From TrEMBL:
<dbReference type="InterPro" id="IPR029069">
    <property type="entry name" value="HotDog_dom_sf"/>
</dbReference>
<feature type="region of interest" description="Disordered">
    <location>
        <begin position="1"/>
        <end position="20"/>
    </location>
</feature>
<keyword id="KW-0496">Mitochondrion</keyword>
<keyword id="KW-0378">Hydrolase</keyword>
<dbReference type="GO" id="GO:0006915">
    <property type="term" value="P:apoptotic process"/>
</dbReference>
<keyword id="KW-0809">Transit peptide</keyword>
<keyword id="KW-0443">Lipid metabolism</keyword>
<dbReference type="GO" id="GO:0005743">
    <property type="term" value="C:mitochondrial inner membrane"/>
</dbReference>
<keyword id="KW-1003">Cell membrane</keyword>
<dbReference type="GO" id="GO:0005758">
    <property type="term" value="C:mitochondrial intermembrane space"/>
</dbReference>
<keyword id="KW-0472">Membrane</keyword>
<feature type="coiled-coil region">
    <location>
        <begin position="55"/>
        <end position="135"/>
    </location>
</feature>
<keyword id="KW-0999">Mitochondrion inner membrane</keyword>
<feature type="domain" description="Thioesterase">
    <location>
        <begin position="323"/>
        <end position="395"/>
    </location>
</feature>
<keyword id="KW-0175">Coiled coil</keyword>
<dbReference type="InterPro" id="IPR006683">
    <property type="entry name" value="Thioestr_dom"/>
</dbReference>
<dbReference type="GO" id="GO:0006631">
    <property type="term" value="P:fatty acid metabolic process"/>
</dbReference>
Amino acid sequence: MTASMPHAAGAAAAEDPPILQSGLHRSRTVTHGHAEPESEVATMKKTVMGIGPMLQSLNVMNEELRKRKDNLLRDKLVLEESIVTCNKEKDEDTTKLSEASESLKKLKTEHDDGKANAQKEIESLKQQILDRDKAICALVDTTKAEARKLCGLVIWYRIITHKCRKTRDCSLSSVLRVEQTLRILKTRPSLHTGFQADKLIHTTVRLPGIFSPRPRDFSLPNSSWSPKMMELYDHYNSQCDLETEDIESQKGPWIRLPSYNRILKYAKGGVYLSKIMQSKARLFTRNVYQVGASFEYVIFLNKEEKKCVCLFQAGHLLEGPPGHVHGGAIATMIDTVTGTHATFLSGLVVTANLNINYRNAIPLGSTVILESTLDHIEGRKTHINCKVTSADGSKVHTEATALFVSISVSHLMGM
Ligand SMILES: CCCCCCCCCCCC(=O)SCCNC(=O)CCNC(=O)[C@H](O)C(C)(C)COP(=O)(O)OP(=O)(O)OC[C@H]1O[C@@H](n2cnc3c(N)ncnc32)[C@H](O)[C@@H]1OP(=O)(O)O
Protein backbone atom coordinates (compact mmCIF):
# COMPACT_ATOMS: atom_id res chain seq x y z
CA MET A 1 0.00 0.00 0.00
CA THR A 2 2.73 2.56 0.97
CA ALA A 3 4.84 1.34 -1.93
CA SER A 4 2.06 2.06 -4.37
CA MET A 5 1.40 5.51 -2.96
CA PRO A 6 4.50 7.28 -4.37
CA HIS A 7 3.84 5.58 -7.61
CA ALA A 8 0.22 6.74 -7.56
CA ALA A 9 1.33 10.25 -6.60
CA GLY A 10 3.93 10.20 -9.38
CA ALA A 11 1.30 9.16 -11.97
CA ALA A 12 -1.00 11.93 -10.81
CA ALA A 13 1.88 14.41 -11.02
CA ALA A 14 2.52 13.45 -14.61
CA GLU A 15 -1.17 14.12 -15.59
CA ASP A 16 -2.01 17.15 -13.40
CA PRO A 17 -1.40 20.76 -14.38
CA PRO A 18 1.80 22.51 -13.04
CA ILE A 19 0.06 24.33 -10.17
CA LEU A 20 -1.15 20.99 -8.77
CA GLN A 21 2.19 19.43 -9.43
CA SER A 22 3.90 21.96 -7.11
CA GLY A 23 1.31 21.05 -4.40
CA LEU A 24 2.02 17.35 -4.85
CA HIS A 25 5.75 17.97 -4.77
CA ARG A 26 5.31 19.79 -1.46
CA SER A 27 3.23 16.93 -0.04
CA ARG A 28 5.79 14.41 -1.23
CA THR A 29 8.53 16.44 0.46
CA VAL A 30 6.54 16.55 3.63
CA THR A 31 5.95 12.79 3.37
CA HIS A 32 9.68 11.93 2.90
CA GLY A 33 11.12 14.70 5.09
CA HIS A 34 8.87 14.64 8.14
CA ALA A 35 7.11 11.33 7.64
CA GLU A 36 3.57 12.91 7.71
CA PRO A 37 0.79 10.49 8.36
CA GLU A 38 -0.66 8.88 5.28
CA SER A 39 -4.11 10.30 5.98
CA GLU A 40 -2.80 13.77 5.30
CA VAL A 41 -1.60 12.67 1.95
CA ALA A 42 -4.95 11.17 1.25
CA THR A 43 -6.69 14.42 2.23
CA MET A 44 -4.38 16.32 -0.01
CA LYS A 45 -5.04 13.97 -2.83
CA LYS A 46 -8.75 14.31 -2.23
CA THR A 47 -8.45 18.05 -2.37
CA VAL A 48 -6.45 17.76 -5.55
CA MET A 49 -9.05 15.44 -6.98
CA GLY A 50 -11.76 18.08 -6.08
CA ILE A 51 -9.90 20.75 -8.00
CA GLY A 52 -10.03 18.68 -11.19
CA PRO A 53 -13.73 19.33 -12.07
CA MET A 54 -13.27 22.96 -11.17
CA LEU A 55 -10.40 23.20 -13.59
CA GLN A 56 -12.49 21.48 -16.19
CA SER A 57 -15.29 24.02 -15.87
CA LEU A 58 -12.68 26.81 -16.00
CA ASN A 59 -11.30 25.25 -19.14
CA VAL A 60 -14.80 25.14 -20.64
CA MET A 61 -15.34 28.76 -19.72
CA ASN A 62 -11.96 29.63 -21.16
CA GLU A 63 -12.87 27.84 -24.34
CA GLU A 64 -16.18 29.71 -24.54
CA LEU A 65 -14.48 33.03 -23.97
CA ARG A 66 -11.94 32.21 -26.65
CA LYS A 67 -14.75 31.36 -29.03
CA ARG A 68 -16.61 34.55 -28.17
CA LYS A 69 -13.41 36.48 -28.71
CA ASP A 70 -13.00 34.82 -32.10
CA ASN A 71 -16.60 35.60 -32.95
CA LEU A 72 -16.18 39.22 -31.90
CA LEU A 73 -13.01 39.50 -33.95
CA ARG A 74 -14.84 38.03 -36.93
CA ASP A 75 -17.77 40.44 -36.38
CA LYS A 76 -15.31 43.29 -36.13
CA LEU A 77 -13.77 42.29 -39.41
CA VAL A 78 -17.18 42.03 -41.03
CA LEU A 79 -18.14 45.47 -39.66
CA GLU A 80 -14.91 46.98 -40.88
CA GLU A 81 -15.55 45.53 -44.29
CA SER A 82 -19.10 46.92 -44.21
CA ILE A 83 -17.78 50.35 -43.30
CA VAL A 84 -15.36 50.23 -46.20
CA THR A 85 -18.19 49.17 -48.52
CA CYS A 86 -20.49 51.87 -47.12
CA ASN A 87 -17.86 54.55 -47.61
CA LYS A 88 -17.29 53.36 -51.13
CA GLU A 89 -21.03 53.46 -51.85
CA LYS A 90 -21.27 56.87 -50.23
CA ASP A 91 -18.50 58.19 -52.49
CA GLU A 92 -20.23 56.71 -55.51
CA ASP A 93 -23.55 58.26 -54.47
CA THR A 94 -21.90 61.64 -53.95
CA THR A 95 -20.42 61.44 -57.43
CA LYS A 96 -23.78 60.39 -58.88
CA LEU A 97 -25.52 63.23 -57.04
CA SER A 98 -23.14 65.85 -58.37
CA GLU A 99 -23.49 64.37 -61.87
CA ALA A 100 -27.27 64.46 -61.55
CA SER A 101 -27.19 68.09 -60.35
CA GLU A 102 -24.99 68.98 -63.27
CA SER A 103 -27.38 67.29 -65.71
CA LEU A 104 -30.34 68.97 -64.09
CA LYS A 105 -28.66 72.34 -64.39
CA LYS A 106 -27.90 71.69 -68.03
CA LEU A 107 -31.46 70.57 -68.68
CA LYS A 108 -32.82 73.67 -66.98
CA THR A 109 -30.60 75.94 -69.08
CA GLU A 110 -31.66 74.11 -72.22
CA HIS A 111 -35.28 74.36 -71.16
CA ASP A 112 -34.99 78.11 -70.48
CA ASP A 113 -33.25 78.69 -73.80
CA GLY A 114 -35.86 76.63 -75.59
CA LYS A 115 -38.64 78.52 -73.85
CA ALA A 116 -37.12 81.89 -74.76
CA ASN A 117 -36.69 80.83 -78.37
CA ALA A 118 -40.23 79.51 -78.53
CA GLN A 119 -41.49 82.77 -77.02
CA LYS A 120 -39.58 84.73 -79.63
CA GLU A 121 -40.97 82.55 -82.37
CA ILE A 122 -44.49 82.97 -81.04
CA GLU A 123 -44.06 86.75 -80.97
CA SER A 124 -42.70 86.72 -84.49
CA LEU A 125 -45.57 84.51 -85.70
CA LYS A 126 -48.08 86.74 -83.95
CA GLN A 127 -46.57 89.75 -85.66
CA GLN A 128 -46.65 87.96 -89.01
CA ILE A 129 -50.31 87.08 -88.51
CA LEU A 130 -51.05 90.63 -87.45
CA ASP A 131 -49.25 92.10 -90.45
CA ARG A 132 -50.93 89.69 -92.80
CA ASP A 133 -54.38 90.37 -91.35
CA LYS A 134 -53.77 94.08 -91.48
CA ALA A 135 -52.72 93.81 -95.11
CA ILE A 136 -55.77 91.74 -95.94
CA CYS A 137 -58.13 94.04 -94.08
CA ALA A 138 -56.73 97.07 -95.84
CA LEU A 139 -58.00 95.54 -99.07
CA VAL A 140 -61.40 94.25 -98.02
CA ASP A 141 -64.55 95.61 -99.47
CA THR A 142 -66.00 97.34 -96.46
CA THR A 143 -69.39 97.61 -98.08
CA LYS A 144 -69.75 93.87 -97.44
CA ALA A 145 -71.04 93.09 -93.96
CA GLU A 146 -69.07 89.88 -93.64
CA ALA A 147 -65.84 91.60 -94.59
CA ARG A 148 -66.45 94.29 -92.00
CA LYS A 149 -67.20 91.68 -89.40
CA LEU A 150 -64.07 89.70 -90.21
CA CYS A 151 -61.91 92.77 -90.07
CA GLY A 152 -63.39 94.05 -86.86
CA LEU A 153 -65.01 97.15 -88.22
CA VAL A 154 -67.50 98.00 -85.55
CA ILE A 155 -71.05 98.71 -85.25
CA TRP A 156 -70.31 102.44 -85.43
CA TYR A 157 -69.56 101.92 -89.04
CA ARG A 158 -73.02 100.52 -89.60
CA ILE A 159 -74.68 103.36 -87.73
CA ILE A 160 -72.62 105.92 -89.55
CA THR A 161 -73.13 104.45 -93.00
CA HIS A 162 -76.83 104.14 -92.26
CA LYS A 163 -76.99 107.82 -91.38
CA CYS A 164 -74.84 108.68 -94.34
CA ARG A 165 -77.12 106.83 -96.69
CA LYS A 166 -80.14 108.43 -95.15
CA THR A 167 -78.79 111.93 -95.48
CA ARG A 168 -76.90 111.11 -98.70
CA ASP A 169 -73.87 112.71 -97.10
CA CYS A 170 -70.82 110.60 -96.32
CA SER A 171 -68.42 113.48 -95.86
CA LEU A 172 -66.10 113.87 -92.91
CA SER A 173 -68.42 116.45 -91.40
CA SER A 174 -71.30 114.03 -91.61
CA VAL A 175 -69.31 111.29 -89.91
CA LEU A 176 -68.23 113.65 -87.16
CA ARG A 177 -71.75 114.91 -86.66
CA VAL A 178 -73.00 111.38 -86.28
CA GLU A 179 -70.29 110.62 -83.77
CA GLN A 180 -71.18 113.75 -81.87
CA THR A 181 -74.82 112.82 -81.85
CA LEU A 182 -73.94 109.44 -80.49
CA ARG A 183 -72.07 111.18 -77.68
CA ILE A 184 -69.04 109.08 -78.19
CA LEU A 185 -66.61 111.94 -78.35
CA LYS A 186 -66.42 112.21 -74.60
CA THR A 187 -66.51 108.58 -73.76
CA ARG A 188 -63.94 107.12 -76.09
CA PRO A 189 -60.19 107.65 -75.90
CA SER A 190 -58.38 109.57 -78.54
CA LEU A 191 -56.17 107.03 -80.22
CA HIS A 192 -54.61 109.14 -82.87
CA THR A 193 -52.52 111.45 -80.75
CA GLY A 194 -53.15 110.61 -77.15
CA PHE A 195 -53.91 114.25 -76.48
CA GLN A 196 -56.89 114.86 -74.31
CA ALA A 197 -57.06 118.51 -75.32
CA ASP A 198 -58.26 117.59 -78.72
CA LYS A 199 -61.46 115.64 -78.44
CA LEU A 200 -62.32 116.07 -82.05
CA ILE A 201 -61.13 113.07 -83.90
CA HIS A 202 -61.94 109.63 -82.64
CA THR A 203 -61.74 106.29 -84.21
CA THR A 204 -64.75 104.76 -85.84
CA VAL A 205 -62.83 101.57 -86.34
CA ARG A 206 -62.44 99.31 -83.38
CA LEU A 207 -59.93 96.56 -83.86
CA PRO A 208 -60.53 92.99 -82.73
CA GLY A 209 -58.38 91.28 -80.13
CA ILE A 210 -55.39 90.55 -82.25
CA PHE A 211 -55.45 94.05 -83.75
CA SER A 212 -55.53 95.85 -80.50
CA PRO A 213 -52.28 95.45 -78.68
CA ARG A 214 -51.31 98.78 -77.18
CA PRO A 215 -50.82 101.19 -80.07
CA ARG A 216 -47.20 101.90 -80.83
CA ASP A 217 -45.94 105.09 -79.27
CA PHE A 218 -43.60 106.42 -81.94
CA SER A 219 -42.00 108.91 -79.59
CA LEU A 220 -40.23 106.19 -77.64
CA PRO A 221 -36.60 105.34 -78.45
CA ASN A 222 -35.93 102.63 -80.99
CA SER A 223 -32.86 100.88 -82.34
CA SER A 224 -32.34 103.51 -85.06
CA TRP A 225 -31.81 106.35 -82.62
CA SER A 226 -28.28 107.67 -82.64
CA PRO A 227 -26.29 108.04 -79.42
CA LYS A 228 -26.78 111.82 -79.64
CA MET A 229 -30.53 111.38 -80.01
CA MET A 230 -30.53 109.04 -77.01
CA GLU A 231 -28.40 111.40 -74.97
CA LEU A 232 -30.77 114.30 -75.58
CA TYR A 233 -33.79 112.08 -74.99
CA ASP A 234 -32.39 110.97 -71.63
CA HIS A 235 -31.64 114.58 -70.76
CA TYR A 236 -35.24 115.72 -71.20
CA ASN A 237 -36.89 112.49 -70.18
CA SER A 238 -35.09 112.54 -66.83
CA GLN A 239 -36.76 115.89 -66.15
CA CYS A 240 -40.24 114.65 -66.95
CA ASP A 241 -43.20 113.95 -64.75
CA LEU A 242 -42.82 110.36 -63.77
CA GLU A 243 -45.36 107.94 -62.42
CA THR A 244 -43.61 105.27 -60.39
CA GLU A 245 -44.87 102.18 -58.67
CA ASP A 246 -43.90 103.77 -55.39
CA ILE A 247 -46.29 106.11 -53.74
CA GLU A 248 -44.20 109.10 -54.65
CA SER A 249 -44.29 110.31 -58.21
CA GLN A 250 -41.61 112.52 -59.65
CA LYS A 251 -42.52 116.01 -60.77
CA GLY A 252 -40.53 117.65 -63.50
CA PRO A 253 -40.80 120.69 -65.74
CA TRP A 254 -41.16 118.62 -68.91
CA ILE A 255 -43.78 116.28 -70.27
CA ARG A 256 -42.98 113.80 -73.01
CA LEU A 257 -45.80 113.81 -75.53
CA PRO A 258 -46.67 110.36 -76.81
CA SER A 259 -47.25 110.07 -80.53
CA TYR A 260 -49.46 107.51 -82.24
CA ASN A 261 -50.38 106.84 -85.78
CA ARG A 262 -53.97 107.45 -86.80
CA ILE A 263 -56.36 104.59 -86.87
CA LEU A 264 -59.39 106.57 -87.90
CA LYS A 265 -59.61 107.27 -91.59
CA TYR A 266 -61.37 110.56 -92.08
CA ALA A 267 -60.38 111.15 -95.64
CA LYS A 268 -63.45 112.53 -97.38
CA GLY A 269 -62.23 111.90 -100.86
CA GLY A 270 -65.71 111.10 -102.08
CA VAL A 271 -65.54 110.13 -105.71
CA TYR A 272 -61.84 110.87 -105.82
CA LEU A 273 -60.80 108.51 -103.06
CA SER A 274 -62.21 105.04 -102.83
CA LYS A 275 -63.12 103.61 -99.44
CA ILE A 276 -60.11 101.32 -99.62
CA MET A 277 -57.79 104.23 -100.27
CA GLN A 278 -59.43 106.15 -97.44
CA SER A 279 -58.75 103.28 -95.13
CA LYS A 280 -55.07 103.67 -95.90
CA ALA A 281 -54.88 107.28 -94.74
CA ARG A 282 -52.09 107.79 -92.21
CA LEU A 283 -50.65 110.62 -90.17
CA PHE A 284 -47.98 112.06 -92.44
CA THR A 285 -45.06 111.98 -90.03
CA ARG A 286 -45.85 108.53 -88.63
CA ASN A 287 -46.66 106.64 -91.77
CA VAL A 288 -43.49 104.59 -92.12
CA TYR A 289 -43.18 101.66 -89.77
CA GLN A 290 -39.55 100.97 -90.68
CA VAL A 291 -37.61 102.47 -87.80
CA GLY A 292 -35.16 105.20 -88.71
CA ALA A 293 -36.32 105.53 -92.32
CA SER A 294 -38.13 108.85 -92.10
CA PHE A 295 -39.24 111.07 -89.24
CA GLU A 296 -37.81 109.97 -85.91
CA TYR A 297 -38.79 112.53 -83.34
CA VAL A 298 -40.04 113.12 -79.84
CA ILE A 299 -41.63 116.27 -78.48
CA PHE A 300 -41.30 117.49 -74.91
CA LEU A 301 -43.61 120.17 -73.55
CA ASN A 302 -42.73 122.66 -70.83
CA LYS A 303 -46.03 123.99 -69.55
CA GLU A 304 -44.47 126.49 -67.18
CA GLU A 305 -42.26 128.10 -69.80
CA LYS A 306 -44.88 127.62 -72.52
CA LYS A 307 -42.42 126.05 -74.90
CA CYS A 308 -41.77 122.82 -76.73
CA VAL A 309 -38.57 121.04 -77.65
CA CYS A 310 -38.43 118.44 -80.38
CA LEU A 311 -35.52 116.06 -80.95
CA PHE A 312 -35.48 115.14 -84.61
CA GLN A 313 -33.43 112.59 -86.51
CA ALA A 314 -34.04 112.60 -90.27
CA GLY A 315 -33.94 109.21 -92.01
CA HIS A 316 -32.76 108.30 -95.48
CA LEU A 317 -36.20 108.69 -97.07
CA LEU A 318 -36.14 112.42 -96.35
CA GLU A 319 -33.29 113.33 -98.64
CA GLY A 320 -33.47 116.62 -100.50
CA PRO A 321 -30.12 118.02 -101.58
CA PRO A 322 -27.69 115.05 -101.77
CA GLY A 323 -26.87 113.93 -98.25
CA HIS A 324 -29.10 116.54 -96.68
CA VAL A 325 -32.65 116.84 -95.43
CA HIS A 326 -35.38 118.00 -97.77
CA GLY A 327 -36.71 121.51 -97.06
CA GLY A 328 -40.24 120.19 -97.12
CA ALA A 329 -39.38 117.63 -94.47
CA ILE A 330 -37.92 120.38 -92.30
CA ALA A 331 -41.05 122.48 -92.85
CA THR A 332 -43.14 119.47 -91.90
CA MET A 333 -41.30 119.10 -88.64
CA ILE A 334 -41.56 122.82 -87.87
CA ASP A 335 -45.29 122.73 -88.63
CA THR A 336 -45.69 119.63 -86.49
CA VAL A 337 -43.86 120.99 -83.46
CA THR A 338 -45.32 124.48 -83.57
CA GLY A 339 -48.76 123.06 -84.38
CA THR A 340 -48.60 120.74 -81.42
CA HIS A 341 -47.41 123.60 -79.26
CA ALA A 342 -50.22 125.89 -80.45
CA THR A 343 -52.77 123.17 -79.83
CA PHE A 344 -51.67 122.91 -76.23
CA LEU A 345 -51.84 126.65 -75.85
CA SER A 346 -55.03 127.45 -77.75
CA GLY A 347 -56.94 124.25 -78.45
CA LEU A 348 -58.04 123.40 -81.95
CA VAL A 349 -56.01 125.35 -84.53
CA VAL A 350 -54.83 125.17 -88.11
CA THR A 351 -51.74 126.62 -89.65
CA ALA A 352 -52.55 129.87 -91.37
CA ASN A 353 -49.04 131.01 -92.08
CA LEU A 354 -45.56 129.55 -91.94
CA ASN A 355 -42.43 131.54 -92.73
CA ILE A 356 -39.17 129.67 -92.96
CA ASN A 357 -35.59 130.79 -93.39
CA TYR A 358 -33.22 127.97 -94.22
CA ARG A 359 -29.80 129.05 -92.92
CA ASN A 360 -27.71 125.88 -92.98
CA ALA A 361 -28.59 122.54 -94.53
CA ILE A 362 -29.18 119.64 -92.16
CA PRO A 363 -27.04 116.54 -92.84
CA LEU A 364 -29.18 113.44 -93.34
CA GLY A 365 -29.16 111.22 -90.26
CA SER A 366 -28.01 113.93 -87.89
CA THR A 367 -29.92 114.87 -84.77
CA VAL A 368 -31.25 118.40 -84.51
CA ILE A 369 -33.29 120.27 -81.92
CA LEU A 370 -36.41 122.23 -82.78
CA GLU A 371 -37.30 124.76 -80.12
CA SER A 372 -40.78 126.19 -80.28
CA THR A 373 -41.56 129.30 -78.20
CA LEU A 374 -44.72 131.34 -77.82
CA ASP A 375 -44.46 134.78 -79.28
CA HIS A 376 -47.93 136.02 -78.42
CA ILE A 377 -51.61 135.18 -78.57
CA GLU A 378 -54.00 137.67 -80.04
CA GLY A 379 -57.62 136.74 -80.22
CA ARG A 380 -57.89 133.64 -82.40
CA LYS A 381 -54.29 133.99 -83.51
CA THR A 382 -51.40 132.18 -81.85
CA HIS A 383 -47.97 133.31 -82.99
CA ILE A 384 -45.13 130.86 -82.48
CA ASN A 385 -41.40 131.11 -83.17
CA CYS A 386 -39.25 128.13 -84.00
CA LYS A 387 -35.53 127.62 -84.24
CA VAL A 388 -33.78 124.51 -85.53
CA THR A 389 -30.24 124.04 -84.24
CA SER A 390 -27.59 121.35 -84.23
CA ALA A 391 -27.63 119.00 -81.24
CA ASP A 392 -24.94 120.99 -79.40
CA GLY A 393 -26.68 124.28 -80.23
CA SER A 394 -23.65 125.69 -82.04
CA LYS A 395 -25.25 125.93 -85.48
CA VAL A 396 -28.58 127.45 -86.49
CA HIS A 397 -30.05 125.45 -89.34
CA THR A 398 -33.48 127.00 -89.71
CA GLU A 399 -35.62 129.77 -88.27
CA ALA A 400 -39.35 130.09 -88.62
CA THR A 401 -42.42 131.94 -87.47
CA ALA A 402 -45.85 130.39 -87.57
CA LEU A 403 -49.38 131.67 -87.22
CA PHE A 404 -52.10 129.37 -86.05
CA VAL A 405 -55.74 130.36 -86.15
CA SER A 406 -58.19 128.83 -83.74
CA ILE A 407 -61.07 127.11 -85.40
CA SER A 408 -64.27 125.49 -84.26
CA VAL A 409 -65.16 121.88 -84.74
CA SER A 410 -67.71 122.86 -87.32
CA HIS A 411 -65.00 124.71 -89.23
CA LEU A 412 -63.00 121.50 -89.39
CA MET A 413 -66.08 119.55 -90.39
CA GLY A 414 -66.71 121.90 -93.25
CA MET A 415 -63.17 121.69 -94.51
C1 LIG B 1 -53.92 117.24 -81.56
C2 LIG B 1 -53.18 118.14 -82.33
C3 LIG B 1 -51.77 117.75 -82.51
C4 LIG B 1 -51.49 117.89 -83.86
C5 LIG B 1 -50.22 117.27 -84.15
C6 LIG B 1 -49.91 117.40 -85.53
C7 LIG B 1 -49.56 118.80 -85.79
C8 LIG B 1 -49.60 119.01 -87.20
C9 LIG B 1 -50.01 120.41 -87.46
C10 LIG B 1 -50.33 120.52 -88.87
C11 LIG B 1 -51.19 121.71 -89.08
C12 LIG B 1 -51.54 121.83 -90.49
O1 LIG B 1 -50.82 121.43 -91.31
S1 LIG B 1 -53.00 122.53 -90.84
C13 LIG B 1 -53.12 122.35 -92.49
C14 LIG B 1 -52.66 123.54 -93.26
N1 LIG B 1 -53.55 124.59 -92.99
C15 LIG B 1 -54.69 124.69 -93.56
O2 LIG B 1 -55.13 123.92 -94.37
C16 LIG B 1 -55.52 125.94 -93.18
C17 LIG B 1 -56.38 126.43 -94.29
N2 LIG B 1 -56.90 127.77 -93.98
C18 LIG B 1 -58.02 127.93 -93.28
O3 LIG B 1 -58.71 126.92 -92.89
C19 LIG B 1 -58.46 129.32 -93.01
O4 LIG B 1 -57.84 130.20 -93.94
C20 LIG B 1 -58.07 129.82 -91.58
C21 LIG B 1 -58.74 128.97 -90.55
C22 LIG B 1 -56.57 129.83 -91.37
C23 LIG B 1 -58.58 131.24 -91.44
O5 LIG B 1 -59.93 131.35 -91.86
P1 LIG B 1 -61.10 132.03 -91.00
O6 LIG B 1 -61.50 131.15 -89.89
O7 LIG B 1 -62.19 132.38 -91.93
O8 LIG B 1 -60.50 133.27 -90.29
P2 LIG B 1 -60.13 134.68 -90.93
O9 LIG B 1 -61.17 135.61 -90.48
O10 LIG B 1 -59.83 134.54 -92.35
O11 LIG B 1 -58.73 134.94 -90.14
C24 LIG B 1 -58.72 135.07 -88.76
C25 LIG B 1 -57.56 135.94 -88.43
O12 LIG B 1 -56.37 135.28 -88.90
C26 LIG B 1 -55.71 136.12 -89.86
N3 LIG B 1 -55.20 135.30 -90.94
C27 LIG B 1 -55.80 134.31 -91.59
N4 LIG B 1 -54.99 133.73 -92.47
C28 LIG B 1 -53.84 134.40 -92.40
C29 LIG B 1 -52.61 134.28 -93.08
N5 LIG B 1 -52.40 133.37 -94.00
N6 LIG B 1 -51.61 135.12 -92.71
C30 LIG B 1 -51.80 136.05 -91.75
N7 LIG B 1 -52.95 136.21 -91.09
C31 LIG B 1 -53.97 135.40 -91.42
C32 LIG B 1 -56.81 137.04 -90.37
O13 LIG B 1 -56.25 138.26 -90.86
C33 LIG B 1 -57.63 137.28 -89.14
O14 LIG B 1 -56.97 138.22 -88.33
P3 LIG B 1 -57.77 139.37 -87.54
O15 LIG B 1 -58.50 140.12 -88.57
O16 LIG B 1 -58.69 138.61 -86.59
O17 LIG B 1 -56.72 140.11 -86.83
